[in-house]
Design a protein that fits this description.
2 domains; alpha+beta; about 25% strand; Membrane-bound Lytic Murein Transglycosylase D, Chain A; two-stranded antiparallel ribbon
Length: about 130
Amino acid sequence: MNDLSVEVKAKEIHEKSTSNKSTSATTYKVQSGDTLSGIAQKFGTTTKALQNLNGISNPNKIFAGQVLKVKGTTKAKTSTYTVKPGDTLSGIASKYGTTTKALQNLNGIANPNLIYAGQKIDCEWKS
């Protein structure tokens, strides 16, 4: 398996639901060449979140054909964060357990390096 490849094939995404209405999860079937970090980036989450959701202790040990949960069953909570001098979008993302890309998408931020003190940033995290 080539750990440098982050090619993710969206056609392998499958929606699942069970008879319990409060329990549903999106799963992803790992393809040859996938990395956990690449999958996390594709789904706007973190490698650590995928590890926790799937009980993976070593993020470098996933295999083709493995089915991973990529969306938990808990609802996301939202908060508004006011940017302070010296803040970075990646630092804010880390504080909320999300990714810079997820914050960019949520807030319509094209350039993650262009945020300013006083700016309001919507943040989501899993409860």
